[in-house]
């Protein structure tokens, strides 16, 4: 039996235009407004799924329930993805909440190591050694 | 009280940075199985909401029947050193979901395309997208017992992949086998980096 046949593709010259922000039309705007704060609409953020978040302070009296829960979770470093999972918040909402908290100095962010045109071989070798121990 | 990580699932305070690898493939191909078999934590799920505008159906904004699609992505974690953490994300093959998670593929070290030979054509589009985006990847064939077996050379021809891209068979349920897939990706990435590095 012969398997079906694919046609190879090649890198595109121009990256596709950025897609529309997924936060525009949410199902439950009242609830999301409360989580994000009054100006939680359009905001750029560099937070990645694997940015590590660490609490800097105990929850202040002004903290929202989400902020307090988040601060309790990340007394040790925790990725944005894990926070999204534990707090049951969509990733886009999580980044809005965290951007506020970063601005307020409640948490710090440890940036991920992302793919470069030429990868850092020492990082790749560290990952290989780590996998070998599995 | 929000449930959080168990004490033994907490990262050390020394954790400085994370890297990620994406496992991509069609529904039911074994992405979450592979994540689970190597992850040190029970796989978690992050969700994102996709509105109708995003999935290209009629815009009935303002109507009571407006619905949103929730797209879920399972992930796991492997501590590499006291400083470095690896995250594995299993994501649906359709590219329209990818932008939901900022930089999911752009920042990843690389990707594993998990395929099922009973539905090989499901992987065609995702492989093409990775080629277009310049994301380095390897292909792992999850060997289901009732799936047709092809020689690797036959699969390479069918998938129209150049000789240097690794294609390997695996059993996503087994930790050692899934680990070998990740190792194959890492060796491939290392070879790419070595080839590109200035002499």
TrEMBL record, chain A:
<dbReference type="Pfam" id="PF05331">
    <property type="entry name" value="DUF742"/>
</dbReference>
<dbReference type="InterPro" id="IPR007995">
    <property type="entry name" value="DUF742"/>
</dbReference>
<protein>
    <recommendedName>
        <fullName>DUF742 domain-containing protein</fullName>
    </recommendedName>
</protein>
<feature type="region of interest" description="Disordered">
    <location>
        <begin position="1"/>
        <end position="30"/>
    </location>
</feature>
<feature type="compositionally biased region" description="Basic residues">
    <location>
        <begin position="1"/>
        <end position="11"/>
    </location>
</feature>
<dbReference type="InterPro" id="IPR036390">
    <property type="entry name" value="WH_DNA-bd_sf"/>
</dbReference>
């Amino acid at each position: 039996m012969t398997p079906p046949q694919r046609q190879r593709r090649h890198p595109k010259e121009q990256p596709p235009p950025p897609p529309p922000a997924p936060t525009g039309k949410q199902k439950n705007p009242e609830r999301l407004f409360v989580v994000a704060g009054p100006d939680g609409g359009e905001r750029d953020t560099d937070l990645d799924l694997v940015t590590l978040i660490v609490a800097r302070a105990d929850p202040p009296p002004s903290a929202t329930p989400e902020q307090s829960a988040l601060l309790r979770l990340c007394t040790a470093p925790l990725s944005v993805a894990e926070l999204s999972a534990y707090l049951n918040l969509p990733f886009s909402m999580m980044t809005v909440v965290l951007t506020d908290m970063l601005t307020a100095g409640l948490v710090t962010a440890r940036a991920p190591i992302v793919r470069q045109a030429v990868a850092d071989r020492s990082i790749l070798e560290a990952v290989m050694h780590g996998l070998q121990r599995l | 009280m929000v449930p959080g990580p168990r004490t033994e699932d907490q990262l050390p305070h020394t954790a400085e940075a994370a890297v990620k690898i994406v496992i991509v493939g069609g529904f039911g191909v074994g992405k979450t199985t592979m994540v689970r078999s190597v992850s040190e934590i029970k796989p978690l799920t992050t969700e994102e909401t996709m509105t109708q505008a995003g999935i290209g159906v009629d815009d009935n904004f303002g109507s009571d029947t407006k619905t949103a699609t929730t797209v879920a992505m399972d992930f796991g974690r492997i501590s590499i050193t006291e400083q470095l953490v690896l995250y594995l994300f299993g994501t649906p093959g359709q590219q329209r979901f990818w932008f939901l998670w900022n930089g999911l593929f752009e920042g990843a070290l690389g990707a594993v395309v998990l395929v099922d030979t009973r539905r090989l054509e499901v992987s065609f589009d995702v492989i093409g997208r990775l080629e277009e985006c310049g994301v380095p990847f390897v292909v792992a064939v999850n060997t289901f017992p009732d799936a047709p077996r092809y020689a690797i050379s036959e699969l390479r021809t069918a998938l129209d992949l150049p000789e240097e891209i690794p294609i390997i068979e695996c059993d996503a349920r087994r930790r050692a086998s899934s680990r070998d897939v990740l190792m194959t990706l890492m060796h491939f990435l290392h070879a790419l980096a070595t080839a590109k590095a200035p002499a």
